[in-house]
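Exodeoxyribonuclease V gamma chain, Borrelia duttonii CR2A. Tokens?
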Amino acid sequence: MYKIYKTNKISNIYNKVNELIRNDNLFKKETIILVKNNILSDEIKKYLATINGISYNLNIKHNTIKTIYNISIENPNIKKFLENNTLLFYTETETLVLYYILKDNQTQNTSQFQSTKNRYAFASKMINLFHKYYSKFSYLIDTWRSNNFLFEDKNKHYYESIQKEIFEKLFVNQINILDLQEKIEKEITNTKQDIETKRIIIIGESREIDRKILHSLQQIFNITIYELVLEDITQIHSNLINELIPIKITKLQPTIQLTKEIDIQSFNEINFLSSLKNNIIKDTPLSNLDDSFKIIQAKTKKREVEILINNILHSTQNNNININDIVITYLAKDMDMYLPYIEELLSKYELAFTILDSQDILKSKSIIALKQLMKLFISNRGTISNFNRKEIIEFLSNIKVMNKFNISTNELEYLIKFSDAMNINFGINKTHKEKLSYDQNFLNSWEDGFNRFLMSLIFNDKYECNNCNENINFQDPESIIKLISIIRSLYEDIMYFKDQKYTIHEWAEIIDIFIDKYIKLDDENRIDAYISTKIQYLKTFSKDANENLYKDYIIKIKEKKVDFSLFKAIFEDTITQKTHQLNNKSTGILVASCDKIEYLQKSEIHFLGTHELDSNIYFDNMDLLNEYYDYINLEQENISNLIKIIFAASQKLYLYYSQSQYLNPDINNPKIINKIINHIKDTGLDIKIETHPNENYDPEYFKCNKDNYLINYDTEAFKIAKSLQKGQSSNFKQKRLTLNKQITLDIENINKAITNPYKYFYEEILNVQIKDTSYINDIKEKQEEQIIDIDNFNYKLMSIISIHEYIKNNTNEHILERINNIIENQIQRGIIPINIKKTKIKEEFITKLLQIKNNIDINFQDFFKMQKADITLNKNIFIDFEDKTLEFKLNGKLKNIYKIDNQYFYIYLEKKDYGQDKIIKKINLYMLGLMIKTATTNIKSIKEIKINYETSKLSIENQYTNEEINHLDIENLLKQIAYISSHPTPIYKDLIQKSLLKIENINELPIALKTQIKYQQKSISINKNMEFILKDKDITWCPYYNRFRDTHDLNIEANLETLLQNFYAKFIKV
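Tokens:
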């Protein structure tokens, strides 16, 4: 007899398992327990070990169909039937069969399935849906198998016939689970066979087809089937259920004879949550509100997670709860939205956690490296990637590849700078480049760039152009050679398999060799081990997992040779399927979608995104299915999961949702949440939705205590907020850094040292790498066509050459020759195409040059008397800093500086006049004067000569005399850098400049600066081009640090205040 046990308590299900296996022979596996995932397996084992004081070697399985198969072949006739027929129950194999049906155009309307990727993706979705049919919609299958149509309306027969045809073609050469069912039914006799298995315990509701087969097997073998399930909400008759689901859609009654045992019991915990459970099942009164049940509203999804983490921290710190007894859940469709925040914040507070969803796999560095490797096999335009700069650097910068070849971060940066300097575009070499469908005139391959690099290394040349100022200079040329060797090897290995076709198991062998050569997998890493397991599975694809099958498994498929694109689609699909089975042990907080945590008993459950419970669920690509069941509001399935989760939580259940941004206030309030709140209020209890601040450290939130709220935010942030209220911010000074090394500053980058001193000190002292993203922005794949803006090109041309020399030189032929050489060099480097209109560039360049020269003739005749000033700094400066002596070393050569006798001029070209930058220019010019005065005492003045490119006009806006330049300011400047770099408050040069614009008196600077520091600014946005080089642990170069983590002391020290006022007083009046 097929027995179903229904209850409302998960603990009752575990107790029932214990009762059923109590008399088992310990040396025989008499009972098979079928569960959905490994987490549930672990929970059952732990529970039974706890109540019995001993652990059992339970025979737990996860695949019902495999279990059916293994039991069925105990019967000789069924075994023979399976030997002579092919049974499809591996979704990967079924998908492959359907793929070839689509590929060979065996069905109608296949025009949309032209590419390998589209065909395989659709086949995979279709197979998953057929399995859902087996589970939920057996009537649909029965109708098709009877050669009938589900719809009476003939207008709908066209779409139904397409899906019906796919179903029939899929199983045309092999039997399916329904055929197996018919065969098993024919083997039923009056005599039952004894086998080792005595009973099968299924936890969770079975598919209807599985029930039918298992029921038939009971009549062939001496086994008993027990199905242990939580009571279906359609059978619960209470006010809350009636409010949540006004129209209940009852399921089709099973066609087999069942014995049902209903065991509905009250919950005994003494808290509000327990009374709510009892109210759901028996309409019993609710007890007083407490912190066991909360509904929490947040502004955003990330804020939902932040509040959730705060609540978990409160539980672990105050309630002594074990984190293994906490679950974070959400709807399956919301997984990708919540998981990044959950991982970020759990990691931030060092809380151990296990993710039961596939995102954990997809974000693995090993999986990413594997996908990047396979991507290099194929391009959209051919059979191999074009090996462009971006995808090569992305692959080599993956930590799994770096570890394989011992590549350092510095070596990667050398490669980025190398590829940028050599302007490498596509292709490994000339032969590869010629096969790509791009304009060959402006493409530089890796080999092109490497050859120029070697020439420069050997002969110390400046590219091939004597007139260019760009030197090729790398501190570690061996690193470039090493990385280029890896790239060449990768190309040659891939080319060996170009245009080849192999069987799936042969491709698995090949990709295994590539992984062994290029990616470092760790045997101790569960995801790396999972990859290896999946590769082994594909290696034995032709042999099948069931070695006791005598007949070859799908002979038409197993030896079929396929191209790499299909293998790649199969492998990626295989890797990402059923990834919840990866977790062999539940370590820490369990994170999983709500459909995967049924039948898990936990103390504390946090449910994110409950406003999405109102949403209907639809199956992709199957309009027929949606149309047939359009009268069923599938939110019933969501609510069913919600009720089961309410029953599963013993101590706390917190529901979170984000407030929508709709204008209609009724839409902003989630329907399901409102029904629960109104139901509770109708019993006389004044439950309120908790509305939390937008930030953990919002002082407004802490001004008064909230009734029944948990003040459980970040302890440090809470103390700061309370102290700020009382004006006691000085209590929270961070420990300052100690500077005690010789510190080298390149004068060309001294502005960066002031703008972001962390670049120069945190790397040295804390060994934290700060990534300069200025060149990473340019790492991108070149477009197929380049549109040259001649005006912009000439502006850049004037910026990289000595305009002063051109203007003084009256020989236009000489100018044109140099321009021609530069253009040739730009063409050679692939920056501009070979068919560029050189004549037009030179004509417009000369025209602009003559306009500038005429304006100089009129306004500044002394321009032609100037000589280039050769000023190089190599000086050690000692300063007294906090009772110790610090040594700064200033290195570098000043550029664009000219002089007449002892009068100095700084010349620069500006595209447009940005009036708001005047104060910045004054400060920068003064610093140049300071550097000159540090190098030589023979300076009368320094003037700024600005040439506006648009108007061709020349102007002298700023100047300083020798007397105005205080040589002591160099020490002041270095002390500022030392203070700012070792200070917990990040004071940046741009904040100082903004403050100077807002004040009229230098004494107001500290107050204005403090206001700027407290004002939150956006950090630099990390785009896709940076992700491959910027790691999470790196501090990015940006003008903002978290206000409460790095700005505990908002008071500028008196010594620093004096330095700032003395240095910047001269710049206030612009």
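The first strand starts at residue 2 and ends at 7.
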